[in-house]
Specification:
The chain has 308 residues and is of the alpha+beta class. It contains 5 helices and 15 strands.
């Protein structure tokens, strides 16, 4: 979540009205509703006793090798993130707004004495990200009710006992058409394939460019290159950058590193537009996207999924 948008993103200056009114020859991507931003309510309140993440800029110039004690803290924060995500999966239904999902997640996080990492991160106004259908990433929860046939990514990060845990998953709302189901399945497969070859000595560029791109091509989808995974720990984002497309990012994995892998696959074009809110990333052709994410730990002989 939030590692940002790398240099491959499309820079376009659309007003919201101009963007949605533009002429568009839409391909037949299936049966679903194109999402437009709705009303965003006030942010949820965090009690004073909850520890906030530090605002101090990160001063890491290479991936951190964590100690056993740090790894245990990461396990605990990632376990809580997974608990929240699984709870949301049971809460999602037709008619539920993404704002209600945000409040639901916020309350679970606070009840567990943790802080929702996205809240106020560089101005983000909510506690989770909810990206529906053609929203590729960083969707802001609002008053739009989920509709029959929607696919939704919910991205959770919690700050617990001084460490961040980060994961996301796709959820099917009601009767999702086969193209939507195929997209979600392919994205889950791409994530699993990328994780499967992570180990000490593996090049960062090799893992993602081969596995994610290969799955996307075989299944007829497109990798959206402008969103990356990231190192994580006491910091929300740090080195290494994890690209999900062909790249030449330097360095090798080492035991003790923790980072996220979070590919985004699209039905159509890889072109993305960031809306005027500064966060919501939508596909230029209104095709659907899917994203899945785990935080992983490089071990002595492979990788452990901390958010499984």
């Amino acid at each position: 979540m939030f590692k940002g948008i790398n240099r491959l993103v499309q820079k376009r200056n659309f007003s919201l009205n101009d963007f949605w009114k533009r002429p568009l020859k839409r391909k037949n991507f299936g049966s679903y509703n194109v999402v437009q931003p709705g009303y965003v309510s006030e942010e949820c309140i965090v009690p004073d006793h909850i520890k906030r993440p530090s605002d101090t800029p990160l001063n890491l110039n290479k991936p951190e090798i964590k100690s056993p004690a740090q790894i245990q803290h990461m396990r605990e924060s990632c376990r809580l993130a997974r608990l929240v995500l699984d709870s949301i999966g049971k809460y999602i239904k037709i008619g539920r707004t993404t704002d209600e999902i945000d409040s639901f997640a916020h309350n679970i996080i606070i009840e567990n004495n943790a802080y929702p990492s996205p809240l106020n991160y560089k101005g983000f106004p909510k506690s989770v990200c909810t990206s529906v259908n053609n929203v590729a990433c960083h969707g802001i929860p609002d008053d739009r009710p989920l509709q029959d046939g929607d696919i939704i990514n919910v991205d959770i990060t919690v700050y617990y006992n001084g460490y961040h845990g980060d994961c996301s998953a796709m959820f099917l709302v009601g009767n999702v058409d086969q193209p939507g189901r195929d997209l979600v399945k392919a994205t889950e497969q791409a994530l699993d394939q990328a994780i499967s070859i992570c180990k000490p000595g593996q090049y960062f560029y090799f893992t993602l460019r081969n596995e994610v791109e290969l799955v996307a091509r075989k299944t007829g989808f497109t990798v959206v290159p402008c969103f990356t995974g990231h190192g994580i720990g006491t910091y929300f984002h740090g080195p290494p950058d994890i690209y999900h497309c062909y790249n030449d990012y330097p360095g090798k994995m080492q035991a003790g590193m923790t980072f996220t892998i979070e590919p985004v696959l699209a039905q159509g074009s890889q072109e993305i537009v960031i809306l005027e809110d500064g966060w919501t990333a939508v596909t230029l052709d209104n095709g659907r996207t899917a994203q899945c994410e785990h935080t992983i730990l490089i071990t002595q002989d492979g990788a452990s999924i901390l958010t499984e």
